[in-house]
Amino acid sequence: MSHPPSLPSVLPSTPALQDGEYPHPVAPSCTHPHSVTTTPEQLQSALARVTNPTETPIFVCALNSCYRLFPSKERLMFHRKRDHDTDEQDDIITWNE
Fold it and tell me: Is 0.85 surpassed by the pTM of this model?
């Protein structure tokens, strides 16, 4: 039985948004300014699902610790040319190739 490829764990592990339940690291009595509050109903509903490489292509620009996500290699390369001024094809993290 073959297993689908997995992404290497080189991406930063910090969440984009923190749940309002978590205290601010410096001022524990308040929450982060960009926090969200997850309700029990949201946790039980189907907000997310597991995907695989055939359903969800993902390309990550790991050049200079950029870590921006793109839906195709073409979009990633356009980003590199525009934002990094390079056509370099190294430092791409993907499960699609």
Answer: no
